[in-house]
TrEMBL record:
One GO location term (cellular component): plasma membrane
GO molecular function: transmembrane transporter activity
All copies of domain Major facilitator superfamily (MFS) profile, residue ranges: 1-448
Segments crossing the lipid bilayer: 39-57, 69-88, 94-114, 126-148, 154-176, 188-208, 214-238, 258-282, 329-348, 354-379, 391-411, 423-444
Cross-referenced PROSITE patterns: MFS
Keyword annotations from UniProtKB, A to Z: Membrane, Transmembrane, Transmembrane helix, Transport
InterPro entries referenced in this protein's UniProt entry, alphabetically: MFS (IPR011701), MFS_dom (IPR020846), MFS_trans_sf (IPR036259)
Protein name: Putative MFS family arabinose efflux permease
Cellular location(s): Cell membrane
Superkingdom of origin: Bacteria
Amino acid sequence: MRLNVALFFAVASYSTLQSIIIPILPSIADRFDAPTSQAAWVVSGFLMIGAVVTPIAGRLGDLLGHVKVLLVILCIFVVGALMAVLATSMLMLIAARMLQGVGAAAVSLSFSIIKGRYPPAQAAGAVGMISATMAVAAGTGLSLSGVISTYLGYGMIFGLPLLVSTCSIILLLPQVRSDRPVATNRRSVNWFGGLFFAVAMLFVLLAITQGNNWGWLAPATALLFLGGVGVGAVWVFFELRALNPLLDVRLLVSPSLIRINTTTLLAGMVMFSMYTLLPVFLQARTPDGLGLGLSVSTSGLLMLPIAIMNFTSGALAGRIAAAIGSRNMLVLGCVMNFLAIALLAILHDSPATIIAVCILHGIGVGLSFASMPALTMLAVSPQQAGVAAGIYNTLRTVGGAIGTQVGYAILAAGGRSPTGQTFTALVVFVGVVCAAAIVSALTIPRSPSQYAV
């Protein structure tokens, strides 16, 4: 029971901080007098670090013990949360968020702990608890961040997860004595793979961040993009030859997975670019009448249907998949996301419309992210399931980082405050990515036997 609570607290802390910052990001940019493109790093830096650390932490857990590694991850997470509470500049907050990003490993480590310590009958229930915790905590953070920051203060945004994760550390300490490693080959930790992957992402995201300031065709911007591609090519070269690659590049681009992986990347971009668009649209009011000009707390509450419908559609996903198939459920989810952005493009002048948009988007996210892991598992052999799951989680996170950074880069094109043109451009961008996700999902075969390895 104590271990259940500890894992619940660990996952809840990370999942809350993943989303809680998004609705208040415009006010945080104002708080530190920072441009919107720089403020985007509060989210994308968090996601980028999570994408890199998760596979490395998983391997270290195999070598040293999953509980021990989870404790280290949570200690770093606590330092990041405390640093965010005390932040006096945007750069300090971004650094704090990057430290918090290591908390992404808490999810996969929790699954590994459950698998190693629980009998199969109990493990299924514990895994369900962790999955539900992720959805509920992320939804709660997204919806209540404005209320918390308005009535309890900015510091409590990070203070509450800090307290919860500290409780998780205390509850996990007695479990260290019985923690045992499951692997012995210490040379198999791919540190260089993680480094090259992080640098490649950093260069590309920096180019997107600075494109408006330097010019999209400026030499510095081009060098960053080319540097990201170059480092990425070096990463692929070494990954193909690594004994224990960070990501299995061959499996990543294999015929059985490439269409699912492409859809996963696009779905991550859709989700986080929508999370970028909605809070700014709700809180801003442009001279040409776009935006609702609502308070931070009200805008957060208007986004509550995303969390409710995400959880509800995820809970019903098993029945829906049994009726129409996981591939068709994925297509349906992508279509719902497209309908959400289309509705926002046509009708955007009342809170009721925004609620309808959030309902559609919540259903779309819930159905999409419930179907993609199932399709991924069907597309590979049992021996490849763990590696394929790691690829899925990484691509979803990378897509989120790219979607966030591109979204805020588009909004920043209009200066310190968004304009009608930048809102329109971001809506078009989200719509195009949604359409691409639909097309990609439609290319996935209907029958698992057509692409099972």
